[in-house]
Amino acid sequence: MHGHRPRTPETERSRRWFMNKALLAGGVAAMATMTGCSSSSSDTASSGSSAAPSGMPSNGPGGGGGMGPGVSQTKYADVVGVTTDGKVVEDLYAIHATDVSTDALVKAAQAFLDGLSTKERTSCTFDIDADEWTAWSNVDGYDREGVRMGDLTEKQRDLGYALLGRALSADGLAQTRGIMKLNAFLGDSNGGNQKTLTEGHYFFTFMGTPSTTKPWGFQYEGHHVAINYFVLGDQVVMTPTFMGSEPTTATYKGEKITLFRPETKAGLAMVRSLTSAQRAKAVSSQSNGNEDMKAGAGQDNLTLAYEGVPGSGLGSAQRKKLLDLVRVYVGYLDEGHAEVKMSEVEEHLDDTYFFWMGETEDDSAFYYRVHSPVVLIEYDAQAPLFYKGDTASASPSASASSDGGGPGGGMGMGGGTPSQEHIHTIVRTPNGGDYGVDLLKLHLENDH
Q1: % helix / strand / coil in the chain, to the nearest 5?
Q2: 66 falls in which pLDDT band (50, 70, 90)?
Q3: Chain CA centroid to CA 286, Å
Q4: What is the pLDDT of residue 50?
Q5: Nearest-CA neighbor of 428 among 100, 173, 65?
Q6: Rounded mean pLDDT of 181-201?
């Protein structure tokens, strides 16, 4: 049994309290559009000292896909995964050798844990089948478990980034760090005064013990980033993975950061390749709304029917574009395991559906979905909530030096029409693949 802070009734009440406050503040529509933000590596406040009390979102209602637990968390033992009709497709996943070593990943994880104090390590370690797996959210003020990057020393943070560097590809690490930085930019451009809108409000938790033979995993989570990473031998599952940003391009501390261009361009390339007959199947007559994501936090057992045009109805060049689109997202996983996952996707390409909502111009705000028995990807351009688009850069010290402040913190409710300056994405492994659930069950049935 791993030591950790238990989910006490008080903790669970605080999570429910935060959801109820959101409903009171903005009604059902606001609840459907909950968002959040991050924190700076120079920020050393404890996780309990964020601007909002008891896990209440420090910036009010915002972006979809982030409603999360507290209302609809699925217990780990009850996870069956995303299905099309409530029935799990059997025999999709198996324990097998991938010939992609996880030795360096295990060493990096162990080095990070070894660099923590006893208290810090106890706070972030859980059993392999802990409910902590499903307790992730896209809300900045959400009451998270684990060790917070902003509370760690520079050396400890470097070990954490080294772990992410082993788990992710170079593009995946750059994407994750870019999201964190733009969240800090968002806080600074709105006057600071919120600890959660900085670069350090991201948390590590570990399930199981890093091992080259036994199952284990970690979760890296905060606003606009939730990476769930399961490892069994040389097999890896990196879903659910939520990534988003508002804004998606800005200059922070002199660095020009632009995110989600590959996701946007690959989606447009795919939809533009369709014939008129294919578009009739793939493109919804409904315009892109403000909140179209279906498989965000708290949706671990989502029932979602296939929509759009299947891979079996595409030509060879179009099928390649569909694979190129999937590869953008899968490519944030380390290269070797990304290739393993792409092979799995290709095996089900005929049953991979592409669905689109919205216009198809370069600057259009749109939603699309790629859905097969083994992968579910959503891209959702949403209405700006807090970023006004009139600030080219932000002071790197504004939010980092603040003492918190009350709810609001200079942040105003956004609104208006969706744009590419606020994007949410998610990747899932349907039919029991998320969090390595099916692999863990097979391991426990066959090896124990």
Answers
A1: 35, 15, 50
A2: low
A3: 26
A4: 33
A5: 65
A6: 87
**Amino acid identity, position 441:** K
Between CA 445 and CA 448 the distance in angstroms is 6
Q: Tell me the two tokens of residue 258.
A: 């632009």
pLDDT recorded at residue 335: 97
Residue pointed to by tokens 């006057």:
191
List the beta bridge partners of residue 231. 216, 236
d(CA 125, CA 113): 9
Q: At what angle do helices 170-189 and 154-167 cross, to 10 degrees?
A: 130
First to last CA, the chain: 17
What is the strand order of the sheet 393-394 is part of?
255-258, 249-252, 393-394
User: Mean pLDDT over all residues of the chain?
Assistant: 83
Report yes or no: 367 and 288 within 8 Å, Cβ to Cβ: yes
Whether the CA torsion 205, 338, 171, 431 is positive or negative: it is negative
- Write phi, then psi, for 397 (nearest 5 degrees): -105, -10
Amino acid residing at 113: L
Which is nearest to 425 in space by CA: 226, 236, 228, 181? 226
**Torsion sign over Cα 348, 349, 351, 353:** positive
- Consecutive H or E run containing 11: helix 9-31
Nearest to 291 by CA among 36, 24, 18, 34: 34
DSSP characters over 375-392? -EEEEEE---SS--S--S
Are 308 and 351 spatial neighbours (Cβ–Cβ below 8 Å)?
no
pLDDT over 70, % of the chain:
78
Residue 283 three-state SS: strand
Per DSSP, 88 falls in state: P
Tokens linked to 362: 């370069």
Nearby residues of 298 by Cβ (< 8 Å), 6 or more positions away: 67, 68, 69, 71, 72, 73, 74, 137
Two structure tokens written together for 427: 């990747």
Measured between alpha carbons, how far is 77 from 118 in angstroms, rounded to an integer? 29
Of the pLDDT bands very low, low, confident and very high (cuts 50, 70, 90), residue 71 is low
| Strand segments (E) across 163-224 | 203-207, 216-222
Work out whether the CA dihedral 177, 181, 182, 186 comes out positive or negative: positive
Task: Tell me the whole-structure pTM to 2 decimals.
Answer: 0.84
Query: In DSSP terms, which residues pair with 236 in a beta bridge?
Result: 231
Burial of 390 (0-12, 13-18, 19+ CB in 10 A): exposed
